[in-house]
Amino acid sequence: MAGRNRGPREAFNDRRGYPPEGPFIRGPPMPRPPPHPALLEEELEMQHTEIRRLLGDNRRLVEDRMALHRELGATKEELHRMNLIIADIRAEQEMRSRELREKTMKLEADLRATEPLKNEAVQLRTEVQKLNSLRQELSGKVQSLTQDLSKLQADNQHIPHLRVEIDGLHQEVMHTRAALDYEKKANIELMEQRQTMEKNLVSMAREVEKLRAELANADSRPWGAGGPYGMKFSSSDSVFPNPYGDGYGAHLVAGDKGPLYGPGPAAWGGPEKPRMTRR
């Protein structure tokens, strides 16, 4: 019950109540974190929809082009048929006009011969006028057909521009695919770098744990000669004299200038590992 709502004491022993700091690492700056996968998926979905829209537009353009080709073929056939019909009509008109001329000549001869045939000549003249009006109507139809043909030719001139636009759309699709492949490769490289960094962090954490264990072992060793307060035997400032005198022909006063036993701090327990400076 007394230890409830209390943290472990080891977490604040090293820095007298302050939380421990991590090791200071020198090196290149950390790379910027990669964008969130949801954003990448949203951008890929937008690009996929754009590609599908472009493919639909391309398909519609191809269908319109095929329909224009079919209409152009049908118009050419209709125009050829109309030309044949017009040629037949012209031949027929020429034949009829020739016949009418011959008839008029005969009628004039007959009129000279007979006066009662004048009424028939008048009727024939009215028929000639009707044929002339019919010829004018046919000529107007031919002009309208020529205008339609010119419009179709103008529409055919737009087909190369449509082809150029289709080629541009194909190139944009290729560029989009190349960009998607590049982003996929970049994402794979970022994942590999992240995995290597995580491995490095794990290894560094293990090294930090080892160093902490070594520091704990070094702190748990006994103090050197002179006690924990570092008193010096047989020195001019020492209150307690050396009870053993100057044995072995050595003065313990030399402790002021160097270690008491041996050349360094490793005289008791073998080589001691150097302590790391605490921040």
From TrEMBL:
Give any single GO term for biological process.
cell differentiation
Q: List the signal peptide residues.
A: none
Q: What keyword terms does UniProt attach to this protein?
A: Coiled coil, Developmental protein, Differentiation, Flowering
The residue ranges flagged as biased composition, category Pro residues, are 20-31
Q: Where is the composition biased (Basic and acidic residues)?
A: 7-18
* Annotated segments matching region Disordered: 1-31
The highest taxon in the source lineage is Eukaryota
Coiled-coil region = 90-155, 187-221
PANTHER family found in the cross-reference section: PROTEIN FLX-LIKE 2, PROTEIN FLX-LIKE 3
Q: Which family does it belong to?
A: Belongs to the FLX family.
Give the protein name, as stated in the record: Protein FLX-like 3
Q: What organism is the protein native to?
A: Quercus rubra (Northern red oak)
Q: Highest lineage ranks of the organism? A: Eukaryota, Viridiplantae, Streptophyta, Embryophyta, Tracheophyta
